[in-house]
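Researcher: Here's the sequence for the chain we discussed earlier.
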Amino acid sequence: MMNTFASHDMPSLFEQLSKVGQTSSEAYLENAHGVLQRIVSMPDLIDGISIEPKTGAYTRTLLFGDRHISVWAMRWGPGSRTAIHDHHCSCCFGMVSGTLVERRYSAIDERRATLSQELVRPSGFVACFLPSGPNVHQMSNDYSDEAISLHIYGFDHRMHASSVHREYEAVELSV
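Model: Thanks. This is the structure I predict for it:
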């Protein structure tokens, strides 16, 4: 059976997701996960989207935004990474191409965190979580190839510059 979903259908998918976002958290996360699964299973859907490359850094392009959600495509150059951070809103992401490393941290206080897990996130991977946190993590491209990810955040991009609630400094606990 031929798949008839096209990139021009993405805005309607995001609009439907935004409406679900006004209901229960569980329903929203389930739907966001499904939307991301659908898109990452067809990576050619983002071929027409312009995401400027930046050596050693990540860049992002807003694909959809309203009062409830913002959807960003992110391009990760080799060596790029986020700060260690948590989110003030729900955060869902899917790997369209390439591989990222997600480092999860345990917060010690409001400024410091210690590394607890290092997880490889390959093409096709999808994750969603609520800001039940702190859900402290860092994303990085530790590989020589570019990576592309899609992020759905539960915030109005016109009201907040970013989904980041707080940034942390990595520390090692002495025994």
